[in-house]
Amino acid sequence: MDKKLRIPFLSMTFNLCFTIYYITLGMISHSWWMFTLGIYYLVLSAVRYIVLRDNKKGASVLFAGIMLMVLTLPLLGTVILSFIKDRGTVFHLIVMLVIAIYSFTKITLAAVHWIKSRRIKSKRWMALRNISFADAFVSVFSLQRSML
Predict the structure, then answer these.
(1) What is the pLDDT of residues 7-41, one digit of tens each?
(2) How buried is residue 17: exposed, middle or buried, by Cβ count under 10 Å (0-12/13-18/19+)?
(3) Helices in 54-91 by DSSP H: which ranges?
């Protein structure tokens, strides 16, 4: 494996762990929001994996862009449903702290990754940066929604 790709693969592995956490938490608490976030992160991890494994260095970038746009639809639907039905889920303090720590870590890591790799003009690296920011912003969005 390329030395530069270790961090994105590590990030993808961490994402998969958080995917399991969100899906399990969604099932236990009967929260469609948490379950939907788990599915979002699962698909996002799959897209990241496809971009990382692409040997043509650019063939999967279009796919990644389309998937990032498609992934907004489940989140939009969940937000609309929770707004219309006036549903809010109360989470334990520990769950909220985990979500907050994860969100701030992801936004920090995405910014650091962007700064370190901004001179690389590869479409593959641009797609990985966009996926990292999509991951970070949905984490912040999840934190905001769960705090309401």
Answers:
(1) 778 878 888 888 898 899 889 988 777 788 888 88
(2) exposed
(3) 61-70, 72-84
